[in-house]
Amino acid sequence: MDELNLLRQHQHQHQHHLVVRGLGEEIDLEIGPGDDPSFPGAALVGVTPGAHDPADDHKSLLIPCSQPVAEGQPQPTPPQVEEHDGLLRLPGQTKKKKKVVKKWREEWADTYKWAYVAVHDNTSRIFCTVCKEYGRKHRRNPYGNEGSRNMQMSALEEHNNSLLHKEALRLQTASKENAQPPEIERPVYVKALSKTAASILESILKKDPHEAEFIQSIQEVVHSLEPVLVKNSQHVQILERLLEPERCFIFRVPWVDDRGEAHVNRGFRVQFSQALGPCRGGLRFHPSMTLSVAKFLAFEQTLKNALSQYKLGGAAGGSDFDPKGKSESEIMRFCQSFMDELYRYLGPDQDFPAEDVGVGPREMGYLFGQYRRLSGHFQGNFTGPKIFWSGSSFRTEATGYGLVFFARVVLADMNKELKGLRCVISGSGKIAMHVLEKLLSCEAIPVTVSDSKGYLLDTEGFDYMKYSVLRNIKAQQRSLKEYLKSYPNAKYIDDAKPWSEKCDVAFPCASQNEIDQAEALAIINSGCRVLIECSNMPCTAQAVDILRTAKVVVAPAKATAAGGVAVGELELNPEFSLMQWSVEDFENKIQDAVKQTYDRSIKAAQDYGIMKENPESLVHGANICAFLNIAQAMTDQGCV
């Protein structure tokens, strides 16, 4: 009768209360009295059998507690109970009254690192470490309750496999032992830096830990500026101010497709710095576009413009909209909706948008038309290839030609020339195609181009006839595989990049971070000794370290883009549209801009003890020269 005496001692208790348990302790993972209408109103009380056996820790007695009885009334007769499988139960109510008490076993903690146990409504539940919700918040079971332990685990595992959860879990992990807050994982490879430079980078990591592209671009510049910061401590505060963009705009872009269905995308514009003049920078329409990418592109454009002799600031922006597969009408409607918000931040003395990935003459025309309509006057402050208001017929070629001219200057300092050298090109957009065209005129041997599906290899090298075929294929938006119909001896390698092909000079023109550690090693093994960055930040930080260790000369994009920057800035000259330039004048102008940028970068490096023979001299010199130009303007203008 010990059990019944214990029951009488607790007859005024209405329900049990559980506390958070440690590993190996019992927790209630089943439904509680208030969770399922099939439970009677009587509260349940856990009663431990008199003879305790450690092997029976998972068992407990569950019987209904009688309701309180008024004073003077006779006590009701205790209910008859029966023992079954080591548990005392009321007869006839076994299934409804059954409760399962499980242990939170140590092996669960190892398997389900994303789960933890906590009390909710006086009942212990299994929670997700990321969103802090338990089973039914992720998947309600058909019985309208929490379900068994297996059911809760199944619901949370299903949630755990979702993309949203995986992304959150990548950035956030929880410690069950000491309940510490989630630890943020650094999204980028961090190099060893001096104390001052490391503190600057650390402050950026704390503020924007998830912006991997932006942090990566900052890291490269901070690494280059270490001797500058040591020489002049005032530049530390200037750099800290520079690394914070002046303005960032994020906005909604709703549009309607040809079927009448509404869609929404996200628009970005980052005006990074106006210290040297009005902002100028590209607009990119691509699904990978994020705020981090916009900030990284704006920062790179700021340094590009600062290397030039013209006075302009830097900006960038775009949208995660993908123009591929869209009709002309859909693209026009999207561009107009995009400009409905962006136009208020543009102006001849504020910001000049330009083309980038996914934005060509067609998109720039739609954007300018809506801008003109909203602003009410024709300002002509957009820059783009072959657009009637820009006055330039060479804008498309300028960047591609400038890249080849820059390679020629680099090779000349090494007592080499482009003629007869094998060149590998990634990408097949407008810049890549003009790099290919100019390489042919320099009698080099380009052997590859690529797209998102793989790369095309012609071991004999492209010539003008083959280039014409490629240009027609791209103009019709067909696959590079179509080239094999005209030249069956060529090869198209699926799901690969061209960096393992034997070459002397590499021209990465595709996208940021297209070259990782493995591909950097492939470039070295292919015999390449010069890499001309055509796209912004084409190499990961680890890949850059590998290339430098192997003494591969890397020409940074902020310097190699001098040709495109120069012509783009000339377009902003009101008198430029009246000029009649020959092809020779145009190419001479680009070559002058390229040579001046190269010389300024090498001189800046030498001023801080980095000799020309150092493979890092161009990268460090370009960063130093650009920063010093901006720093002087920021010093003159005060703390603004």
Automatic annotation (TrEMBL):
Q: What class of enzyme is it?
A: oxidoreductase
Keyword annotations for this protein, in alphabetical order, are: Oxidoreductase
Question: Which Gene Ontology molecular-function terms are recorded?
Answer: glutamate dehydrogenase (NADP+) activity
Q: Which GO terms describe its cellular component?
A: cytosol
- One Pfam family, please name it: zf-C17orf113
Which Gene3D superfamilies does the UniProt record give? Glutamate Dehydrogenase, chain A, domain 3 (1.10.285.10), Leucine Dehydrogenase, chain A, domain 1 (3.40.50.10860), NAD(P)-binding Rossmann-like Domain (3.40.50.720)
Tell me the superkingdom of the source.
Eukaryota
State the EC number(s): 1.4.1.4
- Keyword Nucleotide-binding: yes or no? no
What positions does the domain Glutamate/phenylalanine/leucine/valine/L-tryptophan dehydrogenase C-terminal occupy?
392-638
Q: Which GO terms describe its biological process?
A: glutamate biosynthetic process
Return the similarity comment. Belongs to the Glu/Leu/Phe/Val dehydrogenases family.
Q: Tell me which NCBIfam families the record gives.
A: PRK09414.1
Q: What is this protein called?
A: glutamate dehydrogenase (NADP(+))
